[in-house]
Amino acid sequence: MIIPLDGSKEAEGVLPLVQREIGPDTQIVLLQVIQPVKDRSLMESALGSQLEETEKTRALVYLRDVLRRFEGDPLKWRCEAIVAESVADGIAEFARLEGADLIAMYSPERKGLAGLIKKSVAKDVQKKASMEVKTYSSEEVARVT
What we know:
Blueprint: E1 2-4, H1 9-12, H2 14-21, E2 28-34, H3 42-69, E3 77-83, H4 87-98, E4 102-106, H5 112-117, H6 121-128, E5 132-136, H7 138-144
Parallel strand pairs: 1-2, 2-3, 4-5
Helix pairs in contact: 4-6
């Protein structure tokens, strides 16, 4: 199972919901996708790589803190940070490479103009992933927080 987190409390709210549903042998990966640094020259490319590594390290520190706060079993839970142009593509490809059978993620409801303008990463993941993508709404997350 892959659980993508974006640093928000709402996305973290998926964890208690998932913990209720997992079996004793379920392996869980907390994942954060980092956007690459746009670079134009060789010098900026080296700097971009360093910045991406710094961001990956920050993401792993964050994910490990989340794991500790939610008392995830380190033998069943793992933290990963990857760099990808598209967050949705990164999640779907990572899950495919891992052989995951499920992606569980938060999906905020956007209404009105925000719903028209801002695209849903969760919907993009559902279109691109070859495995089940279970989304949790704001209402579901709010019930456990």
